[in-house]
Amino acid sequence: MYPDVVVVGAGVIGAACAHALTAAGCAVTVVDRGAPASGTTAAGEGNVLVSDKAPGPELDLAMLSRRLWPALADELGDIEWEAKGGLVVATTEAAAQPLLDFMRDQRAVGVDAREVPAGLVHELEPHLTRAVTAAVHYPQDAQLQPVLAATALLAEVTRRGGVIRPHTPVSTVDTGRDGRVRGVRVADGVIPCGAVINACGPWAGDFARAAGVPIAILPRRGIVLVTAALPLVVRHKVYDADYVGAVVSDDAALQTSSVVESTAAGPVLIGSSRQRVGFAERVDAHVLRALARKAVGLFPVLATVPVMRAYGGFRPYAPDHVPVIGPDPRLPGMWHATGHEGAGIGLAAATGRLIADLVTGAAPVIDLAPFRVDRPAVLEAA
């Protein structure tokens, strides 16, 4: 008579959770304060990466997601899935050996990472700078169009009988006398349910606080430049080796690293930046200049290519850089799926699968202890 699960958040993480839950037989309602896929998901590049993750729980999650995404892409139709691979390069002597050491650590846990001899790197990327000192090819890296993916997942949820309610802010969670979740409160009343999934992205901390179970999820702003169409100039996702350091940095100040990739439509996307500025809605010219300068350093051919626009968004940042996935022991029926920062697109398929396994009582396919809600980094800083 009412949904088994309410998913709060209609970005790619919430959509993937709803898709997996309906596939497992749950009745699901998805609510979002805005339009589906209009928040963090709309500001993403669509990366499905294993190349930027050191051995550990997030890489395990990424490897699972990479196995799941191709079948999802076949099911969902045109989401611009491209299994084009990635290329990570060092452009200084000092960066070369750390990149190769990182590659060897990844290979030891099953990542397909291949050192590219200096004489062959320009066969993969003819327009790449000649200043490359080391390069690693990652055939497993892929890309998709995040808004297409999220909306296709939600369309399948609807086809299975699920309900999507956009422009429906949730103020808090209702509980019964037994202390369990019994619904979520919206403007026109309460949507009854037995479980709530907090998939609010960078706003997940606010929602958790309103529900009485605070968690430390903070917004981290990122900016992307979009060039005019430039077909076949950039063949892979290409980034400088310093990108990995920027991803795991705790520094609140601006972090930029060079990330360049083409899209199916032709324009080139240029990133990446990370900056903790709260929810400040601004695009700073000095950030755009830094991104452009570093991109031209990797691909000198970009120096004369027009930049058509820039866009930015907020990524859900957990203090220990590990997503939060699982039940909240303080509130039975409350679940979290957040904290993926800039990797949410790539990790969505696995996150949805794991949430569905947990909610339905199935055995998760990877160890979820590192992602638990009640770890010190998530609770103590809340």
Automatic annotation (TrEMBL):
InterPro entries found in the cross-reference section: FAD-dep_OxRdtase, FAD/NAD-bd_sf
Keywords: Oxidoreductase
GO terms under cellular component: cytoplasm
Molecular function GO terms recorded: oxidoreductase activity
Ribosomal protein recorded as keyword: no
Residue ranges occupied by any FAD dependent oxidoreductase domain in the UniProt entry: 4-358
Coiled coil regions, renumbered to chain: none
Pfam families reported in the protein's UniProt record: DAO
Entry protein name: Glycine/D-amino acid oxidase-like deaminating enzyme
Organism: Herbihabitans rhizosphaerae
